[in-house]
Amino acid sequence: MTPEPRPNAADHLDDDDYPAYTMGRAAELIGTTPAFLRSLGEARLITPLRSGGGHRRYSRYQLRIAARARELVDQGTPIDAACRIIILEDQLEDALRLNDELRRREGPSDRAAGS
């Protein structure tokens, strides 16, 4: 029986969803405080994974969301409104992507016939 390969940290270098950053490092990277990151968790905008010891771990994707929230808050938007804006932006992006995908599947001849 061949042993399963051990996961290598380098395997996750390109994974946007891998929880690689501690709270302190995440806050440092986006120029905010750990309290700000906790508030985003309380608002349910991002949900960091927990390490075995219970420490919050953030992915690059979550850091991009947190950075967008910080940008909106820095412009004077209340944090709850900033979170809602980001959720709506994400939903719009998903809808546009789905719409494009459906149009590609439909093909040019189907569109001409449907017009």
From TrEMBL:
Stretches that traverse the bilayer: none
Classification lineage: Bacteria, Bacillati, Actinomycetota, Actinomycetes, Kitasatosporales
Gene3D superfamilies: 1.10.1660.10
GO molecular function: DNA binding
Biological-process GO terms, alphabetical: regulation of DNA-templated transcription
Domain HTH merR-type: 20-88
InterPro entries: DNA-bd_dom_put_sf, MerR-type_HTH_dom
Protein name from the UniProt record: MarR family transcriptional regulator
Taxonomic superkingdom: Bacteria
Species per Swiss-Prot/TrEMBL record: Streptomyces auratus AGR0001
